[in-house]
Amino acid sequence: MPTENRSSNTEMVSVPRDLLKKWQRCALRWKIDIIGIEIMDVLAKPAEPHQGEVERLRSVLGEAKGEYDRSANRVKQLQADLTALDEKLDRTQDLLRSMVYDYRSVVQAGYDKITGLGSDCDSVDKMLADNPHYQKALALLIPDLESRPEERGTPETEPCSGCGTPGYTGNCDKCLPY
């Protein structure tokens, strides 16, 4: 077992606490009172670590605390960055949603004007479906749009499941693609 010289005539030996308690019980059972009492006194005192070990543990603890603080600060900064990016994404999605709505409104108005003057043109659904940028914007806003036909719009002859109007009119929230 490790030993440490404390003075010229004292030597300290590390002994497991369980073994010391066992010795105490034996000493008390054999009526060796002096030894039993000395052992009780030793057990009553908290274990004193070696001074070098205390300093080493303080150093390790200081390093661990510094690393924890640096990590906590990094996590806090990353959380702030993520929050800022999330807010920017929300603003971008709102802007894209408005642009999609405005584009659809312009296409609808153009269709109404052309057909109102007696001319023929593609349906609003076809014009929107033929515009790849519009389709990409819808895919970004509504990722599962293909599995939600009531939000894609209905064929011109089929009534909307929300308002009952034939076609993709935008009269209700089921007709709107966003």
Question: Any overview of this molecule?
Answer:
By secondary structure, the chain is mainly α. Among the domains are: 31 residues; 71 residues. The chain is 62% helix and 5% strand. It has 6 helices and 2 strands; from the N terminus they run ββαααααα. It has a two-stranded antiparallel ribbon with strand order 1-2. Strand 1 and strand 2 form a beta hairpin. Helix 3 packs across helix 5. The chain is rod-shaped, with a radius of gyration of 41 Å. The chain starts with a strand and ends in a 26-residue tail after the last helix.
Strand line-up of the largest beta sheet: 1-2
Low-confidence stretches: 1-9
SSE succession = EEHHHHHH
Strand content: 5-15%
Shape, please? rod-shaped
* C-alpha-based Rg, rounded: 41 Å
Q: Which key features would you list for this structure?
A:
two-stranded antiparallel sheet; single chain; mainly alpha; 5% strand; disordered N terminus; 6 helices; 178 residues
Q: What is the gist of this entry?
A:
This protein has 178 residues and is mainly alpha-helical. Helix content is 62%, strand content 5%.
Topology:
Blueprint: E1 3-7, E2 10-13, H1 17-29, H2 33-44, H3 51-116, H4 124-129, H5 132-141, H6 149-152
Helix pairs in contact: 1-2, 3-5
